[in-house]
């Protein structure tokens, strides 16, 4: 893999979604921990799956965190949404040690957890077991996949074979371990735990797969008797703490398992797990030849997180009073001799280390700087150069410092917008902060939506402000001051509770040169073709970026806000910059312009350097050939909610960086043109070539930056609104999150149409599987494709279409406004889409004006050509006619008839007199059009091909749609009928005429077809088309509904079959019998192919566990039964139960419950006649008890048996027959198998009869 030479940048994904945790409490019985005051540090780490060739394990990881006795495990994927992915284990009163490790086998994921008195193996199924229906997820990307934690139970974690409670070494007295490490040996499936005590004792625990645990102490080589060894260690500890173990790990070298311990003085010891003793002691400083006079202040040992059996790399960190260093080492074993080989030594500039991690080629370290801030550095073993990772700037705890307040400032709204800004704070953090802030009245609730939590925050803050105001009457200034103080206090509480993780992503060259200008050199860009082709120009580009960074450092916040505000108000960037240049020079030092010119003079070829930067800022050259084949694996890239958030965060960062570059380039151009110190040819090239393009790029970058900061509107488009826009053929919108939580507009777009389009484009890039294997390799190329879609001057209209289709009308209006005065690309298309938006929101006159304005682009804008004018490009007048007909149709669908008439008049004034506008209205023209389409569909019945069937569906659909525009009295057409059908009509002769009865035979030639008949024809054809598309072997020439239902049943298209039965008055019995059969068969044996036909039955509304086909099909059966069984009827209940009984399966509880309420007597007879005596007896008992008032609601009784209750009857003869049957069965066997059931039922039945007789007598006496 090619070494990445640029720096990295932190991006914090949106973690504001509600957290639904599965809670499991474990009590191992170890009690010694409760007797000591134990302090363990909070820790967090992660694990990534090994196989990156499968989309469901690629970019998938587990994040864990420990806090005293609580372990939190969360599984994430950048490519697939996971359900049930959060689990929290509480090891009751047992602190967890920092020695957790996660391991992957072919079958399982194993989490090893050491605590101060026990060790645990938490075992979860491997993701491969959950993804046997890959094709289903490919067809239905909105279906989430189950996490490996979704099936975890407390019973499994409490299984004695998965944990062990240990006792400390004999020499450790009552001490508890302070350090731990763990490892899993895949060959033997043995878990190894090592625990270190403050007295330097080491306890080794080996746990076999069946839970058997062997405990042993690791001992150093010594001639001292064993009973004195502990005493010697105690004595040695009193004299010096240099030998104290400060870090340990388990390492496998040449198939031998070793425990490595690092002491405070820098001695590395190798302990053999096989021999149970120390086999080597290595002085790191002496072995590496380094001479350090200072005493070691601290030491940490780590191993490579991506190591394999053939290459084990470790790193030792040592700090001294004069500095610190990292030793990168490789253990080498030769016979009985163990030594280490130094691969490199890295010398960091910081001294206060927080933590570090190593890979086989790179080291990552986190430090605390002198001002208390966290900084992160990374270094490659090859280059020895430390590169600072650019961390995300955290939101200011005092948001008032971040905004330019105006006279309309309202604290409540401002702080609410700040706190609930998409991705800023997780909802769980806000909820926890609220519970701490107002403990007495607010309880933390992780299931709250954003709107619900927002309301609770408002209530809490209003109460707090009221309590803080001493006097009931205060002036406005005092009230505002008190309000701000209370809100700032709450924001501080939110910051204290914030916990999240982030990604360190690679930067592109523009970001690196902007953010790491103090650490760049030419060779860094050798892997980037646009910069590697001319390294001299690259050097000039680097010098130019030094100026860009210098200007950014000199800019004041006030200037930046003014520049942004003027651009938002549609002022030209070059004009704004020219007006601000004088103010900039007055704010900065007098030598400001001279300094810029001096730095510019260092550049050899300024024009070429500036042209190269502009080339990097364009995006057109990043696209793949649209004719390339699609790589299916790439279609899942960054498609999960977390992946979408990551991409949105990266785009937001890149938009900010690119806008800064454009703005500062514009400032450089203005300074140079004003000073006129450069050569005339260079200045003219900058003025005429570079400056105009910089202006356009500045405006485009500002548009992207503005877009990346928007919050999506929560109102989703209504289906009726979208249907009225069907004439303009908008691109479909899918996977639109219907959530109440605040989400960024860019995130919503990427999770929907935008991300899908980017993935389709990205999937055509010819790249190796290695380039797609990990997110940090595929992220930058994917961002290029995503940026192209939202780049205003790319020529696409996907974003504007999506804003209209997704109901983001306000943002569409603002988006069009921002591009209105400079962006010539697709300007008429934007006007057209904005007009449709105004039409949807009821602003018809604005829409009319924009539609007329958009007509100018029908020959220049690709959208208008493809969607509006298809097939009429050669005739300009015909094109205008077609355009205005579309517009008139839109106005008519929105019932804006006055605008339709006005547009028609405009159209008539444009077209030539000999080619009048073909506007025909009224029932006759509609019926004529419908008749033509229906006749075409009717004739296609004779063609038995899928293509003809598809055309037939379209014809019937068009006929139905046109007839719906007619008055119901005229909504019909005629069709020819079978000429062989004759009808006899008899005429009786007149009385007294003497003539015989005359009989005439009439042949019926046509018949009237109303809209309902056309709908049935459409349904019939659509069902056949769906069947053929699902199973290409199915016959097309199906002519009868019964035959079609049979074929649909065989294919598993049950909902379609039921719809045919409903519309053609057929019995549902065969459909429910087949569906019941599939339910029983899938329960007995899972069949992965079932997902194929299940997916065709519209599963979106089924709240079931999607990893089990059996659960899904039973839920489908229940949904269909509830929909198609008539009230108070049990025909379908009876069919289903008979089928289940015939297949010797158990009747589901929900089906029994429904049957009991509707007709318990029929169910009783069915069970009895089927030989299910035990179930029949149980039902009869419950039925009798319900009649007497015990559980009456479960059997449909409003009131129990009482004198005042309405009359009802029980199947006494059926119950008596059941009692007699039990008696017969008992008499046939000596064991009397039903003796108890017989006596209980007979007694209860006798009691019921007595009660019924008594009540009847009371009613008679009354």
Automatic annotation (TrEMBL):
InterPro entries for the chain: Beta-prop_Nup120_160 (IPR059141), Nucleoporin_Nup160 (IPR021717), NUP160_helical (IPR056547), TPR_NUP160_C (IPR056536), TPR_NUP160_M (IPR056535)
Region forming the signal peptide: none
Record domain Nucleoporin Nup120/160 beta-propeller: where: 60-492
Molecular-function annotations in GO: structural constituent of nuclear pore
Keyword Heme in annotation: no
Location of the NUP160 C-terminal TPR domain: 1012-1260
Domain NUP160 middle TPR: 791-916, 925-965
Protein name per Swiss-Prot or TrEMBL: Nuclear pore complex protein Nup160 homolog
Keywords: Nucleus, Transport
Domain NUP160 helical: 534-749
Domain of life: Eukaryota
Pfam families recorded: Beta-prop_Nup120_160, NUP160_helical, TPR_NUP160_120_M, TPR_Nup160_C
Subcellular location: Nucleus
GO cellular component, one term: nuclear pore
Major place of residence: nucleus
């Amino acid at each position: 893999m090619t070494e990445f030479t640029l720096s990295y940048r932190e991006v914090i994904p949106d973690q504001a979604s509600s957290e639904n945790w599965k809670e499991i409490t474990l009590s191992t019985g170890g009690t010694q921990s409760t007797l000591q005051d134990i302090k363990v540090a909070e820790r967090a780490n992660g694990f990534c799956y090994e196989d990156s060739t499968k989309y469901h394990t690629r970019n998938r990881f587990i994040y864990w965190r420990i806090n005293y006795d609580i372990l939190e495990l969360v599984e994430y994927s950048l490519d697939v949404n996971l359900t049930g992915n959060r689990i929290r284990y509480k090891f009751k009163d047992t602190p967890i040690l920092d020695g957790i490790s996660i391991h992957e086998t072919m079958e399982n994921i194993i989490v090893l957890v050491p605590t101060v008195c026990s060790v645990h193996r938490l075992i979860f199924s491997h993701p491969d077991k959950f993804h046997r229906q890959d094709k289903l997820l490919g067809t239905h990307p909105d279906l989430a996949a189950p996490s490996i934690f979704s099936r975890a139970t407390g019973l499994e974690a409490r299984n004695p074979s998965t944990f062990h409670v240990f006792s400390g070494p004999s020499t450790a007295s009552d001490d508890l371990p302070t350090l731990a490490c763990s490892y899993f040996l895949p060959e033997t499936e043995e878990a190894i735990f090592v625990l270190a005590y403050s007295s330097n004792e080491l306890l080794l625990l080996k746990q076999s797969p069946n839970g058997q645990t062997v405990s042993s102490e690791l001992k150093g080589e010594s001639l001292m008797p064993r009973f004195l060894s502990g005493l010697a260690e105690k004595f040695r500890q009193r004299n010096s703490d240099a030998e104290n173990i400060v870090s340990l790990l388990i390492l496998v070298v040449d198939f031998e398992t070793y425990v490595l311990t690092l002491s405070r003085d820098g001695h590395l010891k190798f302990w053999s797990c096989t021999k149970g003793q120390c086999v080597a002691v290595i002085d790191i400083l002496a072995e590496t030849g380094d001479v350090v006079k200072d005493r070691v202040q601290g030491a940490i040992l780590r191993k490579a997180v991506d190591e394999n059996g053939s290459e084990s790399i470790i790193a030792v960190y040592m700090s001294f009073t004069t500095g610190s260093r990292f030793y990168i080492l490789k253990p080498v074993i030769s016979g009985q001799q163990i030594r280490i080989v130094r691969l490199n030594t890295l010398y960091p500039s910081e001294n206060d280390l927080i933590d570090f991690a190593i890979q086989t080629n790179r080291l990552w370290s986190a430090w605390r700087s002198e001002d208390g801030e966290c900084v992160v550095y990374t270094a490659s073993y090859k280059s020895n150069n430390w590169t600072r990772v650019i961390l995300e700037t955290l939101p200011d705890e005092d948001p008032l410092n971040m905004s330019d307040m105006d006279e309309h400032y309202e604290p409540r709204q401002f702080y609410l917008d700040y706190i609930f800004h998409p991705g800023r704070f997780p909802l769980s953090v806000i909820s926890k902060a609220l519970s701490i802030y107002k403990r007495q009245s607010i309880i933390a609730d992780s299931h709250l939506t954003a709107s619900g939590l927002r309301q609770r925050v408002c209530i809490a803050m209003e109460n707090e402000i009221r309590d803080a105001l001493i006097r009931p009457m205060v002036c406005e200034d005092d009230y505002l001051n008190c309000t701000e103080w209370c809100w700032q206090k709450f924001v501080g509480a939110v910051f204290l509770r914030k916990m999240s993780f982030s990604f360190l992503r690679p930067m592109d060259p523009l970001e690196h040169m902007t953010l790491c200008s103090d650490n760049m050199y030419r060779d860094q860009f050798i892997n980037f073709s646009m910069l590697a082709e001319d390294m001299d120009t690259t050097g000039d580009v680097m010098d130019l970026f030094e100026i860009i960074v210098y200007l950014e450092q000199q800019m004041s916040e006030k200037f930046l806000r003014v520049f942004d505000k003027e651009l938002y108000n549609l002022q030209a960037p070059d004009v704004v910059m020219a007006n601000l240049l004088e103010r900039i020079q007055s704010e900065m030092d007098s030598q400001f312009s001279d300094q810029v010119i001096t730095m510019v003079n260092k550049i050899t070829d300024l024009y070429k350097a500036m042209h190269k930067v502009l080339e990097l800022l364009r995006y057109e050259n990043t696209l793949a050939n649209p004719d390339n084949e699609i790589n299916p694996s790439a279609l899942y890239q960054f498609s999960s909610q977390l992946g979408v958030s990551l991409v949105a965060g990266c785009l937001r960062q890149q938009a900010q960086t690119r806008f800064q570059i454009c703005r500062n380039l514009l400032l450089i151009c203005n300074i140079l043109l004003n000073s006129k110190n450069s050569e005339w040819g260079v200045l003219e090239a900058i003025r005429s070539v570079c400056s105009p393009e910089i202006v356009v790029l500045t405006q485009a970058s500002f548009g992207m930056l503005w877009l990346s900061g928007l919050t999506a509107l929560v109102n989703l488009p209504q289906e009726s609104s979208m249907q009225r826009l069907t004439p303009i053929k908008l691109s479909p919108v899918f996977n639109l999150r219907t959530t109440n939580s605040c989400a960024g507009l860019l995130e919503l777009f990427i999770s929907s149409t935008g991300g899908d389009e980017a993935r389709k484009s990205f999937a055509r890039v010819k790249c190796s599987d290695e380039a797609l294997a990990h997110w940090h390799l595929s992220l930058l190329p994917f961002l290029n494709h995503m940026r192209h879609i939202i780049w205003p001057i790319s020529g696409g209209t996907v974003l504007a279409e999506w804003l209209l289709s997704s109901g983001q009308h306000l943002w569409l209006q603002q988006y069009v406004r921002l591009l209105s005065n400079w962006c010539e690309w697709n300007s008429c298309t934007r006007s057209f889409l904005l007009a449709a938006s105004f039409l949807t929101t009821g602003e018809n006159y604005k829409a009319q004006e924009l539609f007329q304005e958009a007509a100018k682009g029908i020959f220049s804008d690709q959208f208008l050509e493809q969607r509006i004018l298809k097939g009429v490009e050669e005739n300009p007048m015909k094109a205008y006619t077609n355009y205005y007909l579309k517009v008139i149709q839109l106005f008519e669908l929105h019932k804006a008839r006055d605008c339709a008439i006005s547009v028609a008049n405009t159209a008539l004034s444009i077209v030539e007199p000999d080619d009048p506008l073909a506007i025909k209205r009224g029932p006759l023209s509609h019926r004529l059009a419908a008749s033509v389409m229906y006749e075409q569909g009717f004739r296609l019945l004779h063609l038995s091909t899928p293509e003809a069937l598809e055309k037939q569906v379209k014809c019937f659909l068009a006929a139905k749609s046109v007839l719906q525009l007619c008055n119901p009295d005229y909504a019909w057409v005629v069709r020819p009928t079978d000429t062989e059908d004759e009808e006899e009509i008899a005429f009786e002769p007149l009385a007294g005429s003497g003539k015989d009865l005359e009989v005439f035979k009439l042949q019926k030639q046509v018949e009237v077809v109303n809209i309902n008949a056309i709908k049935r024809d459409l349904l019939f054809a659509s069902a056949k088309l769906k069947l053929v598309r699902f199973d290409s072997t199915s016959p097309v020439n199906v002519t009868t509904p019964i035959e079609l239902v049979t074929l649909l049943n065989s294919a598993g298209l049950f909902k379609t079959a039921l719809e045919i039965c409903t519309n053609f008055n057929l019995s549902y019995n065969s459909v429910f019998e087949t569906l019941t059969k599939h339910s029983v068969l899938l329960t007995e044996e899972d069949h992965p192919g079932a997902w194929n036909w299940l997916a065709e039955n519209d599963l979106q509304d089924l709240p079931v566990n999607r990893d089990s086909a059996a659960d899904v099909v039973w839920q489908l059966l229940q949904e269909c039964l509830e929909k198609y069984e008539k009230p108070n009827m049990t025909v379908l209940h009876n069919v289903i139960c008979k089928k289940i009984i015939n297949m010797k399966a158990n009747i589901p509880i929900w089906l029994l419950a429904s049957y009991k309420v509707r007709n318990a007597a029929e169910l009783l007879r069915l069970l009895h006649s089927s030989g299910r005596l035990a179930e029949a007896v149980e039902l009869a008992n419950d039925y009798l008890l319900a009649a007497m008032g015990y559980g009456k609601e479960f059997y449909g009784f409003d009131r129990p048996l009482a004198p005042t209750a309405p009359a009802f009857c029980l199947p006494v003869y059926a119950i008596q027959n059941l009692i007699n049957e039990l008696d017969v069965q008992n008499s046939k066997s000596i064991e009397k198998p039903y003796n108890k059931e017989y006596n209980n039922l007979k007694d209860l039945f006798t009691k019921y009869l007595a009660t019924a007789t008594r009540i009847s007598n009371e009613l008679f006496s009354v």
